[in-house]
Amino acid sequence: MLKSVEAWDKLTPKQLLIVASIALRPNYEKSFTTKVFLRLNGLRVKKGYTLIMTDDGHNFKSYIFQMNWKRPFTISANIFASMVKKFEWLEQDITLFHCLPKIGRYQASDYRLYNCTLEQYLFADNLYGAYASTRQRKYLRQLTAVFYHKAKESFDSSKVAGRSSRFRFTQMNRLFATYLWYTGVKKWIMNKYPYIFEGGGSGATMPPDESILNLLSNLNQGDITKNEIILKTHVHEALYQLNLFAKKSQE
Fold it and tell me: Which of 24, 62, 70, 134 is the most buried (most CB within 10 A)?
């Protein structure tokens, strides 16, 4: 039976890696949902298409596929199109998902960042932006190093560059899966704390790190020594308080 996935949070780690692999290809947008549907189901086109004559004399277009080494079978063009249509969510905004794949012996952070500090979030956001603008793999390795760690190992911004060497041989699609996940959690956070980001992710006029640092300058009341304490605070605790502060300042 052919597989269908309804949303980002329904993907398995293996399926996410397939999506990441396809998204890394040049001009991946072309037939993206079709390629994902075929790969997730292990299908390959055996023949372009054939015209099949029905008992009532009508012709209809049908594609011929093969799954692994099984016998080829046909799917009508209309049914095939309806199956591919179920993957249209891939072409919309990436949403929060929890299927981060395992990378060696390293553990992934909580998919909602419930075990992260504000400093870790801001540090990751800068790396995310650096990769988005340059597409340099080193930033992707460092972003992965922020969120994948050994057991009982805590975040240390001074060690991220060194720890990124752990992932120098990691497949690109596994690294890119971290980028896709952070895209989703970033949007989720911006919607969760809308007053910080001036619009909850849609139409924000300021990068997230600048928005937060501007609020920090108000919270510390001119005492920059308080910034270190605030940055070490749990990210959601800090963002909750910052969101309240921003809301009151706008009233």
Answer: 62
CA angle 115, 124, 222 (to 5 degrees): 85
| Bridge partner list, 73 | 65
Assign 251 a pLDDT band (cuts: 50, 70, 90): confident
Contacts of residue 175, Cβ cutoff 8 Å, sequence gap at least 6? 137, 140, 141, 143, 144, 167
Domain that holds residue 131: 107-250
pLDDT above 80 (res 34): yes
DSSP code at position 12: -
What whole-number distance in Å separates Cα of residue 245 and Cα of residue 251? 10
Q: In angstroms, how far is the first alpha carbon of the chain from the final one?
A: 55
- The C-alpha angle 51, 53, 56, rounded to 5 degrees, equals 145
Buried b (16+ CB within 10 A) or exposed e, 23-49: beeeeeeeebbebbbbebeebeeeeee
- Examine the domain organization and report whether 148 and 24 are in the same domain: no
The 3-state secondary structure of 89-157, one letter per residue: HHHCCCCCCCCCCCECCEEECCCCCCCCEHHHHHHHHHHHHHHHHHCCHHHHHHHHHHHEECCCCCCCH
What DSSP designation does 199 have? S
- In the predicted model, what is the mean pLDDT of residues 45-53? 64
Q: What is the mean pLDDT of the chain?
A: 86
Whether residue 123 is found in the same domain as residue 183: yes
Rounded Cα gap, residues 80 and 165, in angstroms: 44
pLDDT digits (tens, 9 = 90+) for 201-219: 444 445 656 666 676 776 6
- 197, part of any domain: yes
CA distance 199 to 211: 12
**Sequence letter at residue 20:** A
